[in-house]
Amino acid sequence: MDDNKFDNELKNRLSEYEADEFDPSALAALHHQMASEAPTPWYTSRSTELMVGSGIIISTILIIWFQWYTNHINTEMLQSKLTQLETRLEDEGKRFLNPTYNPALSPAPPDTKNATHLSGVTPTAYITLLRKVDALTMALEQLRAETLEIHKERSYSTTPDRDDDHQYVTEQHENPVANSRLTPRIAVNSSERADARNNLAANEVSEQKLSGRSILDIQRHYQQGIGIRLGPMAALSRASYTMGDGRYDFGVGILADFVLSPAISLETGIVHTLRQYHIPSADIAEANNLPGVDTGLGDLRSADIDSWIFEFPIQLKYRFPISLKAGWIAGIGYSQLFYTKQILEYDYQFNASQSASLNSSYKESAIKTYPGMLGLSLGFGNELKRNQFLETSIFYQHGLGKSGVEQTKPVFIGLRGAYWFSIR
């Protein structure tokens, strides 16, 4: 077909074309429909993430406030007990060094070791307090024995010469209270309070020399029922899949740890993670079951998959202490996976050109559950403050089945940290 013939054909077609008449009512209806549709706020598409994040922040604030209040009350109570014991030691020392002291009329020393009971105190703090009470009791008994020995030595002593107003002439018999005159006070060579401090320091050093089994026995003796710990956690992990390349993902959550014994605990909670990975062209042939692929746009070249995952773990942990405040922790557990949303972005090759490409996306908003993951962990726990613990660990999770709409089996390796607040 030459150019003239083509131009004539085009003119004939254009002359036969009749444009539709303008309908003002249709334009008004379009404007009314556009005005009736309000723009969607940005936070509606992130409602799930916002609710989970708000709940985590509020729970963390409440836990921190409750733990601070409990620690403040318990600290004051412990300080009051120690102050009372030190005051009693000083009063008893002054009374025993007084020559008018009569052992037959003195009251029996109180059983402070068994009578002192503090509810809500961790075994570590309770054991430390008992050790200090034992040291003060030993110092008190030593002071009493030395005082009795002084009275025995002075009961048969002769009367020395009077020296100004410091010493008086007296003769002691079996009852030192029989005479109205007083026996001069004999200065003690060493301070019993210093001895008590030395005993406390020796006890603190001996705590570090206790074996792990001995520490477990001591903590098991003073544990009352099942302990409960709550706290936030954060994890950084790298994922690998049967097809595709994983990336570094960050997850946060709230965990609860039920301390069944000083060595055994059961951990559970909720963890939210945004998983992202890329399926390159080398592996795209294996992804033959991806949903929402539009073959009319060209050959599928690659895919990017974002998954919003909630994880509900349950883990059995074993703790082996190396001191009263620190220990190694090993765990094994299972995690159930819930996918709340997935977005798949596809890249197509347009015709035979390597530089030209088209894109499409597919969104899966239905909440789905998939086979869980078997996990192993190894870490270290340390008590930073009373009733507050920091736990760090490395973990490995292996998928027990295929998950996600892309049906791939994941494997996760990462580092996790948790800050525990003991509430019971």
CA(first)-CA(last) distance: 93 Å
Question: In one word, what is the shape?
Answer: elongated
Q: Helix amount, in percent?
A: 25-40%
In order across it, which strands form the biggest sheet? Answer: 1-3-4-5-6-8-9-10
The major beta sheet can be summarized as: 8 strands, antiparallel, barrel
State the helix count: 7
Structural class by secondary-structure content: alpha+beta
Overall pLDDT confidence: 75
Q: How large a portion of the residues is in β-strands, by DSSP E?
A: 25-35%
Radius of gyration: 40 Å
Whole-number total of structural domains: 2
CATH third-tier fold name of the largest domain: Porin
The second-level CATH architecture of the largest domain is: Beta Barrel
Unreliable spans are: 113-120, 158-190
Number of E-state strands: 10
Q: Give the topology string: H per helix, E per strand.
A: HHHHHHHEEEEEEEEEE
- Output the CATH class name of the largest domain: Mainly Beta
How does this structure look, described?
It is a single chain. The protein has 424 residues and is an alpha+beta fold. It folds into two domains: 50-209, no CATH class; 226-422, Porin, CATH 2.40.160. The protein is built from seven helices and ten strands. The protein has helices spanning 3-16, 24-36, 47-97, 112-115, 123-155, 192-208, 212-222; strands at 227-241, 245-246, 248-259, 264-279, 299-321, 326-349, 357-364, 368-385, 388-399, 410-422. It has an eight-stranded antiparallel barrel with strand order 1-3-4-5-6-8-9-10. Strand 8 (368-385) and strand 9 form a beta hairpin. The chain is elongated. Residues 113-120 and 158-190 have low confidence and may be disordered.
